[in-house]
Specification:
Rossmann fold, about 50% helix, 12 helices, single chain, about 10% strand, alpha/beta, 7-stranded parallel sheet
Length: about 300
């Protein structure tokens, strides 16, 4: 029995092993990944993004608990090696991690972003497929919190939660820089702090300017994840967004767009590797030196590589 078949039968160890091979870039599992892709497409994938310190990990813990109480299975992929949720220094977060990890209806995996500026590791899409095939009904992807580049989360998820906290102007600036366009729900966490009303007004003004898109007007929620306040209402509305995209026929289109982006990214990656393998590492390094010495423009360097491919 192959790993994909074991995963589909509910084998959690096989799922963990397969994700490790995905992270390692093991080409031998391509057939397994193709099998998983055919078996999946059932999970609701929720992205949680926002600045570091916004309380994403605590919020995710409470979301997972709420869904478990509603009888849903939950997979969690935390794309951030420094996330407290995945084993950082805070004892409270480690206790929460242990509490969830003993629940057979929850599967948790941390993944390194490996320098990917999009906040989501390249392997995340395949890791999500693993949890989908494992039978997780809800898959939460926690991203690094890298500001504008967090828009890459759209390539993986159906519903995007943007988490901010009151009193931090940088959070709002990050949203202005690019996250505003991808958020389906905005969460003002730590709402017991001063400045929560100011943060809400700023978000409302920005969303008013942005207008309604794709049949859904982004909503704003206030939570205190530490105590669980506001979590039930937030989950209700996450489910509402999921119901809407299915009801309005947007799910199929969003899947096509996600797959398009993924195929293009893989194509670019493979094309670059093919070009560099033909050009040769020594020749490439020499070309880069010429560019660094201002003797060659980067565009001309690319043309030289392409010309060699044509020959």
């Amino acid at each position: 029995m192959g790993l994909a078949e074991k995963v589909a039968s509910g084998d959690r160890r096989a799922a963990a092993r397969l994700i490790s091979l995905i992270e390692d870039g093991d080409e031998s599992i391509r057939t397994e990944l193709a099998d998983l892709h055919c078996r999946g497409g059932h999970a609701h994938i929720v992205g949680v993004t926002g600045s570091p310190g916004a309380g994403k990990s605590t919020l995710i813990h409470k979301l997972a608990r709420e869904w478990r109480q509603r009888g849903k299975t939950v997979g969690i992929i935390a794309v951030d090696p420094s996330s407290p949720f995945t084993g950082g220094a805070l004892l409270g977060d480690r206790i929460r991690m242990q509490e969830l990890s003993t629940d057979q209806g929850v599967f948790i995996r941390s993944m390194s972003s490996r320098g990917n500026p999009g906040g989501v590791a390249k392997a995340t899409a395949d890791a999500v497929r693993v949890l989908d095939a494992l039978g997780m009904e809800k898959v939460i992807v926690e991203t690094v919190g890298a500001g504008q580049s967090e828009v890459a989360v759209m390539d993986v998820v159906h519903t995007v939660l943007v988490v901010v906290v009151p009193g931090l102007g940088d959070d709002i600036q990050a949203i202005k820089a690019g996250i505003l366009e991808i958020g389906d729900l905005f969460v003002i966490n730590k709402a017991d702090r001063d400045g929560v009303e100011v943060a809400q007004r700023e978000l409302e003004m920005m969303l008013e300017l942005e207008g309604e898109a794709k049949g859904w007007r982004p909503l704003i929620f206030k939570t205190i994840a530490r105590t669980g306040e506001g979590i039930g209402e937030l989950v209700d509305n996450i489910e509402g967004h999921w119901d809407m995209i299915k009801r309005e026929g947007l799910l199929e289109e969003s899947e096509r767009q996600r797959c398009r982006r993924e195929v293009l990214e893989l194509l670019k990656h493979k094309a670059v590797l093919a070009l560099l393998s033909e050009y040769g590492p020594d020749d490439f390094d020499a070309l880069v030196r010429e560019v660094a010495r201002r003797k060659l423009h980067p565009h001309d360097a690319v043309e030289k590589i392409m010309e060699k491919r044509k020959k």
